[in-house]
Structures are given as structure tokens and as C-alpha cells.
């Protein structure tokens, strides 16, 4: 740390992204990326947009917004695109939280929420997950704070029914409720349809998982036009050109290639069920995931030990050294071949220790 670093950031504990190692080729199942390339149309549109990189991108992302509005059946002023959904989540902490509107989220959830709260000096509380790792819905009813809920949740993969989300939104009219749907396309129920009924609901989604575009950095928020206008005030005060033109063009291609999108989501969901069944057959406890990962623990080997042994054998998964979840690993759903290799490697590891 330099002696110039502002006091306000000295205690900051930054988010730790999953490893992106380059030392060897891994079967990479640690950061919930898609095993598939982006849609061919998305790639083609990105290539064409590269010709125009001498110009600034459109700060209003008009063509992308038009494609999205058609896709979701919403108005153009009900959506805002950002540099990954991390950016819209940060904007939401900036726009809708303060000492009078502190944040609240589950204790086990996306690890970036407390970091966004801290960097924006937002006070926050966490609500413990139930013993079965489900979200304690009742604790969020009328909680009178700005709510952040990932649905499906990470790293558990468990989803709440839309009716529970609606109860939380309806019971907190004095605060914004942010539903982070990064993983919704793999089997969850989206709350987007509720934005016309509730002016305090912001739904965020990403192109990083189901649309195979993690490297492009594209996310968005959907809410009533007043919420989107507030978020735009924040965006235009930080970086009007937050979405680059190559990424915006790829995003349009992705929306227009709906069949490709649907077939990728189905392939991942099918492979997830095969993986969960295979792990259960090996004695694992596997939560009922609706995301593109499974959260699993074995009675025979500790979470960290399994993570390390898989890593030695060239398979990367994500281990969180945190209370209640350290016996688990979060395993991204890759291609069927990658998952067969994972299961084969786990069998060898279990045989070695038996
Ligand atoms: N929300 C959740 C729950 C996530 O797991 C992630 C991925 N790390 C994100 C949001 C952000 O993803 P991105 O910025 O790539 O859209």
C-alpha cells in the first residue's frame, strides 16, 4: 500500500475472482463460464463492429436496447446495459443504499455484495440461510432495507419460487429489492414480468453465463423507468461509454439467435442433471441446483482436500473457505466430456483414499 492510498479505502477487502491460471491446461469448472462459444451471429456482428472502433460507443446502446426491449416485452426506458452485471449491481448499491436505506442479503451468497457495500460506505446486515441452505424468505418480509437476493442463489444453486420473490418485493415498498438473476436461464423463474406491477423491483441479468459472453462483459438491469433513470444518473457520472461497441453488437447477435441460446441452456441443464446424479451415485450430497453449477460435498473427503486433489489432476473447481460451506465445492457445468472427466477423476481420488 502506498502512503497516498485514501484512508477511506485502507480497510477495503477486495473481491477475489476465481482463478484464471495459465500454467497448464485445466478442465476449468471454477468460474461458471459456458463451455460453448458465443452464438455464431454474435461473433459475426462483433467482427463487423470492430471496423468502427475508432468511434466512441453509443452511450445509450440504442440498437441493443431495442433488441432487448423486443426480447423481454418491455419499454426501452425500462432497461440499462452495463459492463457485466457486476457494474449494475454496484450502481444499485450507489443509487439505492445509504444510512437510511442499509442493504440486506443472505449470509451465504454472491461474495461481491459486501464488497460493493463497503466501497460505497453502505451499512449492511446479513440473514443466515436456513439449515438446508435455502433462503429464509420470512426474514426478508417487511425488512425495511434495500434487499439483494441472487435467484438462483450462488454458490448453492437453489432457486426461490416467483411467489416468494413477489412477497418480498410487495412487503418492502419503501426500499428497492434487487433480484440478481445471473443464473436464471438454467431453470429459475424470472421476476422481469413483475416490474410493471412494482416500482421498487430491479432485476439484473448477465450475458456471462447462459449467453457464453463472460469475456465481453455485458450485463443489464430491468426495472420501472424511474429506477432506470436513477441508475443512468450514476452511470453518466462515472462512464457514459461503459459498454463498448463490439460487445454491444455481440449482444444484439445473441438476442437475435434465440434458438442457439435456448439449445445451450438446455444442454447445460441436461448435463447438470447427469452430473448431479453421478455425484450422488458416488455418495455426494448435491443441492438441487437450477444454475449452471452444482454445490456438492462428500462424506469421504473434505472440501478443500477434494479441491486440491482435483487441481493436481488438472480439474479446477471453486472452493470457498467459509463457515458452513467449507466441506462443499462449487462445480461449474461444462461439456458432457468435461463432466465425464470430472467424475472419472473423482472416482480415482476416492479409490486412492479408501
Ligand atoms: N451475480 C452473481 C450471483 C454471480 O455469480 C456473478 C458472476 N460472478 C455476477 C452476478 C456477475 O457476473 P458478470 O459481472 O460477469 O455479469
Quick structural summary:
The chain is α/β, with parallel strands linked by helices. It is 37% helix and 14% strand. It is built from 11 helices and 12 strands.
Name the CATH architecture of the largest domain.
3-Layer(aba) Sandwich
CATH topology of the largest domain: Aspartate Aminotransferase, domain 2
Helix proportion range: 25-40%
Oligomer: single chain
Structural class: alpha/beta
Task: Output mean pLDDT.
Answer: 97
CATH class of the largest domain: Alpha Beta
Q: Would you give an account of this structure?
A:
It contains eleven helices and twelve strands. It is of the alpha/beta class. It folds into two domains: 14-36 and 259-353, Alpha-Beta Complex (Aspartate Aminotransferase, domain 1); 40-256, Type I PLP-dependent aspartate aminotransferase-like (Major domain) (Aspartate Aminotransferase, domain 2, 3-Layer(aba) Sandwich). The chain has a seven-stranded mixed sheet with strand order 2-8-7-6-5-3-4, with helices on both faces. A three-stranded antiparallel sheet has the order 9-10-12. A two-stranded parallel sheet has the order 1-11. The protein binds 4'-deoxy-4'-aminopyridoxal-5'-phosphate. 4'-deoxy-4'-aminopyridoxal-5'-phosphate is lined by residues 84-86, 110, 150, 154, 180, 182, 206, 208, 214, 219.
Amino acid at each position: 500500500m502506498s502512503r497516498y492510498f485514501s484512508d477511506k479505502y485502507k480497510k477495503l477487502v477486495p473481491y477475489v475472482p476465481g482463478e484464471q491460471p495459465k500454467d497448464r491446461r485445466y478442465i476449468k469448472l471454477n468460474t461458471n463460464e459456458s463451455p460453448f462459444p458465443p452464438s455464431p451471429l454474435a461473433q459475426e456482428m462483433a467482427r463487423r463492429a470492430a471496423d468502427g472502433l475508432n468511434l466512441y460507443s453509443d452511450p445509450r446502446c440504442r440498437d441493443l436496447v431495442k433488441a432487448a426491449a423486443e426480447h423481454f416485452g418491455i419499454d426501452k426506458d425500462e432497461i440499462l446495459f452495463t459492463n457485466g452485471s457486476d457494474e449494475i449491481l454496484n450502481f444499485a448499491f450507489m443509487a439505492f443504499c445509504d444510512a437510511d436505506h442499509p442493504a440486506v442479503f443472505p449470509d451465504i451468497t454472491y461474495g461481491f455484495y459486501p464488497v460493493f457495500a463497503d466501497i460505497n460506505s453502505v451499512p449492511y446486515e446479513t440473514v443466515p440461510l436456513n439449515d438446508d441452505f435455502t433462503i429464509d424468505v420470512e426474514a426478508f418480509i417487511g425488512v425495511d432495507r434495500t434487499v439483494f437476493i441472487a435467484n438462483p442463489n450462488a454458490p448453492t444453486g437453489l432457486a426461490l419460487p416467483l411467489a416468494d420473490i413477489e412477497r418480498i418485493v410487495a412487503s418492502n415498498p419503501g426500499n428497492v429489492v434487487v433480484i440478481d438473476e445471473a443464473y436464471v436461464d438454467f431453470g429459475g423463474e424470472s421476476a422481469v414480468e413483475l416490474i410493471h406491477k412494482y416500482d421498487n423491483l430491479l432485476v439484473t441479468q448477465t450475458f456471462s453465463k447462459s449467453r457464453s459472453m463472460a469475456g465481453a462483459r455485458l450485463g443489464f438491469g430491468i426495472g420501472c423507468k424511474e429506477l432506470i433513470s436513477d441508475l443512468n444518473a450514476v452511470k453518466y457520472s462515472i462512464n457514459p461509454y461503459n459498454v463498448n461497441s463490439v460487445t454491444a453488437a455481440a449482444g444484439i447477435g445473441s438476442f437475435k439467435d434465440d434458438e442457439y441460446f435456448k439449445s445451450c441452456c438446455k444442454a447445460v441443464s441436461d448435463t447438470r442433471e447427469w452430473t448431479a446424479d453421478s455425484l450422488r451415485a458416488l455418495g455426494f450430497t448435491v443441492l438441487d441446483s437450477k444454475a449452471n453449477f452444482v454445490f456438492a460435498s462428500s462424506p469421504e473427503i473434505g472440501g478443500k482436500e477434494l479441491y486440491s486433489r482435483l487441481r493436481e489432476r488438472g480439474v479446477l473447481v471453486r472452493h470457498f473457505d467459509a463457515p458452513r460451506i467449507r466441506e462443499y465445492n462449487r462445480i461449474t457445468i461444462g461439456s458432457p466430456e468435461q463432466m465425464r472427466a470430472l467424475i472419472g477423476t473423482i472416482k480415482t481420488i476416492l479409490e486412492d483414499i479408501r
